[in-house]
Design goal:
Number of helices: 11
CATH class of the largest domain: Alpha Beta
Shape: globular
Largest sheet: 8 strands, mixed
Oligomer: single chain
Distance between the termini: 20 Å
Number of strands: 14
Strand order of the largest sheet: 3-2-1-4-5-6-8-7
Strand content: 15-25%
CATH superfamily of the largest domain: Glycogen Phosphorylase B
């Protein structure tokens, strides 16, 4: 089976990781060849993973519109596909509607669910051109049909899709090891960029004294696509390391004891699946999607290893959350949960012919 996966490539990787998880799950069920189309950070990241990716070039606006050159290029590529997976580019189903190729769309819950607004109304209308919509949700505990969201189109809400994370946990030989990530990009919002950078600076201000006291051994910062490291941290090399740009986090969780992250959907999904103690920092400066990170943090707040400060701008509040998370890390046990990959892949496979009986499921 030939799959064309088209992902929104900017400002970060939030629309790439779920497609990687879904195509990987399909590959576990069927023999597949996956080609990719993205741009910006998405194209660079996929190329770095060695994937067969076409750089579509950045669109004129925030999204690829249905008649843009990028959209027409996707339509040409789709003619050779048995299945098209789209994540984040909600105009593209219209572009592909005349082709006899099944299209599955990966949706963020905030794309469709919640108080009506112009963005959700447009998504609901345009996703009606898809054959199926898969909603990857932090709050979901099992597959559930959502016929109320896109009339006439099969919609399945599943637990958040998550890339494969190596099993096991390697306890530290010394003080705890901390992994810090600033999440994806900033949606072109200077306010969101500034607050994300401020969150990183607050975190390092808390971790520095803990490192000096020996309560933290090392800190690895994995910056987002457009993150800025505080200039005054340039000399903190004894305990602080900075990765050279966005790198896959999946292989890092087993080698760290604590995760501190902006409350993005994909990072919290990975944290929940591997059970690493986590401090989630909702960054809400973007005027259009300010509530999403609060909603993400609230969706996983019941998990035993998740900690969200009431106000991470308050140093004492942030410090308290970090100390509680370090206490959880010291116990050395991790409670994992299953992602929605298998249910999502089963639905995607139902859209294509030549399905083996073992892979048929009653999810439509």
């Amino acid at each position: 089976m030939n799959i064309l996966a088209v992902c929104r490539g900017a400002p970060g990787l939030g629309r790439v990781a779920p497609a990687l998880a879904l195509t990987g799950a399909i590959a576990a069920m069927r023999e597949v060849t996956v080609t990719w189309a993205s741009y910006g950070a998405g194209a660079r990241f996929l190329a770095g993973l060695g994937r067969d990716v076409t750089d579509l070039g950045s669109p004129d606006g925030l999204f690829i519109d249905s008649v843009a050159p990028q959209a027409l290029h996707v339509a040409d590529r789709a003619r050779d596909a048995d299945l098209v997976v789209i994540d984040g580019e909600f105009f593209l189903p219209v572009t592909l509607a005349h082709l006899d190729v099944p299209v599955v769309y990966l949706a963020n819950p905030h794309d469709l669910d919640g108080p009506p607004n112009a963005f959700r109304r447009v998504n609901r209308r345009l996703l009606g051109y898809c054959d199926a919509v898969i909603i990857s949700s932090l709050a979901c505990t099992g597959p559930a049909q959502r016929s109320d969201l896109v009339p006439g189109t099969a919609c399945l809400e599943v637990p958040a899709l998550c890339q494969d994370i190596p099993q096991g946990y390697q306890p530290p030989a010394g003080p705890p090891r901390v992994l810090v990530t600033t999440g994806g990009g900033s949606l072109g919002s200077p306010e969101l960029r500034a607050e994300t950078d401020q969150a990183l600076e607050r975190v390092l201000d808390v971790l520095g004294p803990l490192a000096a006291l020996g309560k933290v051994g090392s800190v690895l910062v994995v910056p987002g696509a457009d993150a800025t490291m505080p200039a005054r941290r340039a000399g903190d090399g004894s305990w602080l390391q900075v990765a050279p740009g966005p790198v896959p986090l999946a292989g890092l969780y087993s080698r760290h004891d604590l995760l501190i992250t902006r409350a993005g959907r994909n990072t919290l999904a990975e944290a929940a699946c591997c059970g690493i103690p986590t401090v989630a920092l909702p960054v809400t400066a973007d005027p259009h999607r300010a509530g999403e990170q609060h909603a993400n943090a609230a969706a996983v707040a019941h998990l035993p290893a998740m900690f969200t400060p009431r106000d991470w701008h308050d140093r004492d509040d942030l410090l308290g959350s970090v100390l509680r998370a370090l206490e959880a890390a010291a116990r050395g046990t991790r409670s994992t949960r299953q992602p929605g990959n298998a249910a999502a892949a089963a639905l995607a496979c139902q859209l294509t012919p030549a399905i083996s009986p073992a892979n048929q499921g009653a999810v439509l």
